[in-house]
Design brief:
Strand content: under 5%
Shape: elongated
Distance between the termini: 49 Å
Radius of gyration: 22 Å
Helix content: 55-70%
Oligomer: single chain
Largest sheet: none
Order of helices and strands: HHH
Number of helices: 3
């Protein structure tokens, strides 16, 4: 919540001072804060969560989605 509010204020101030005042550094800061805000809002859903105990092994296999495999086979 605090992070979101801080980024919003930086964006607002950067746009106001950057565009109205002609200071491009403030505008660049607003653009960077907008990117950070966007990245921060993206929810990354975990496919699986697992706690491994000492001595356990985990094998991860990565496969292409079914649609892409069919398209490549054609």
């Amino acid at each position: 919540m605090l992070n979101e509010l801080l980024l919003f204020r930086i964006i607002r101030t950067g746009i106001r001072r950057g565009l109205n005042g002609g200071h491009w550094g403030w505008y660049a800061l607003a653009v960077c804060a907008t990117v950070l805000r966007y990245v921060n809002r993206q929810d990354v859903a975990a496919v699986s969560r697992l706690q491994a105990k000492p001595g356990e092994q985990l094998v991860v296999t990565v496969r292409e989605p079914e649609r892409r495999r069919r398209r490549l086979a054609s």
